[in-house]
From TrEMBL:
It comes from Leptospira fluminis. It catalyses: L-methionyl-tRNA(fMet) + (6R)-10-formyltetrahydrofolate = N-formyl-L-methionyl-tRNA(fMet) + (6S)-5,6,7,8-tetrahydrofolate + H(+). The gene is fmt. Belongs to the Fmt family. Keywords: Protein biosynthesis, Transferase. Its EC number is 2.1.2.9. This is Methionyl-tRNA formyltransferase. One of its GO terms (cellular component) is cytosol. Attaches a formyl group to the free amino group of methionyl-tRNA(fMet). The formyl group appears to play a dual role in the initiator identity of N-formylmethionyl-tRNA by promoting its recognition by IF2 and preventing the misappropriation of this tRNA by the elongation apparatus. NCBIfam families: fmt.
Length: 314
């Protein structure tokens, strides 16, 4: 099958590279976000999908707004007669004129079991809400976000130590497996699909800067879920001794004290540091990042900071 690929970040590039190597699939071109400045030099950097496409000598198209530039886009795409468009983490909503343009329409790989968690942050939101399972949905793109008919779905279990990075790895791996089989070889008819039940729909939004700020007055489970939902990027933040800290990874302990001081730090030994949450339970810190420093383990933090009984995260 001849396809075009729409995607931008690293996980999208992993799927893209796998499809390039799958027998029976021919990728004709890639569409990705414009180059963005990065680092102190603010030098524009290619997206991972663009880098992978250029390495294979494929045409790459980039639009500041594909909605506003749809006529230009369609003119370019018409030169490469793809039968199907595939979207995975592209970062922009496609107008109807584009997603209906190829012979078999446009399909999307979504990181949840639709119609649950439609929207921009299904993986982060599943962790934030403490789900014990999620999955992938391969669906047709329609005029409304993530409401298109479902072609395939598959479940993925979530452990207490999963974060957005590890869960995205498994979503990408499972999506790659299913799409490789779905798209390989010639096709004469559209994919068999089923409509979603709108009465079961839930929605999620983009992560906002204020979502990163931790509130230690809530339960330990809620704090743990928020930290892993925001890991590895952008990271959950708090303050310690008037400095900004990022908490990257915590572990469930079951440790509890009746006297509740949310954010209170408790040193167990030379390597182990806990903090208390609003329900009296403590979480263990596995890694964190002080302001203007590199990410470090709890033991490294304890070597550099003398913790007292009065210390707490704010």
């Amino acid at each position: 099958m001849k396809i075009a690929f729409f995607g931008t970040p690293e996980h999208s590039a992993k799927l893209f590279q796998s499809l390039l190597e799958t027998q029976g699939i021919e990728v004709l071109f890639a569409v990705t976000n414009p180059d963005r400045p990065k680092g102190r030099s603010k030098t524009p950097v290619f997206s991972p999908v663009k880098q992978a496409a250029l390495e294979k000598g494929l045409p790459v198209f980039q639009f500041e707004s594909i909605r506003k530039e749809k006529e230009k886009a369609l003119e370019e795409f018409a030169r490469y007669p793809a039968e199907l468009y595939l979207v995975f983490a592209y970062g922009s909503i496609l107008p109807k004129e584009i997603f209906e343009f190829p012979r078999f329409g446009t399909i999307n790989l979504h990181g949840s079991l639709l119609p649950d968690l439609r929207g921009a942050s299904p993986v982060q939101t599943a962790l934030w809400k403490g789900y014990d399972k999620t999955g992938i949905s391969i669906q047709y793109i329609g005029e409304k976000m993530d409401e298109g008919d479902i072609i395939q779905e598959a479940e993925i279990p979530i452990s207490l130590q999963d974060n957005t990075g590890t869960l995205m790895d498994r979503i990408t791996e499972l999506g790659t497996e299913h799409l490789g089989k779905l798209l390989a070889g010639p096709r004469t008819n559209p994919f068999v699909s089923r409509p979603q039940d709108p009465s079961l729909a839930t929605y999620c939004t983009k992560i906002k800067p204020e979502d990163r700020i931790l509130d230690f007055k809530i339960s330990a489970r809620e704090v743990h879920d928020r930290i892993r939902a925001l890991a590895p990027e952008p990271g959950a933040v708090c303050r310690f001794r008037d400095k900004r800290f990022v908490l990257h990874q915590t572990r469930w302990t079951g440790e509890r004290e009746d006297r509740v001081l949310p954010g209170k730090l408790k040193r167990m030994d030379r390597k182990t540091l806990l903090f208390q949450c609003g329900d009296g339970l403590f979480l263990e810190i596995l890694s964190l990042q002080p302001e203007n420093k590199n990410r470090m383990s709890a033991s490294d933090f304890l070597n550099g900071f003398r913790i007292t009984e009065e210390d707490r995260f704010e």
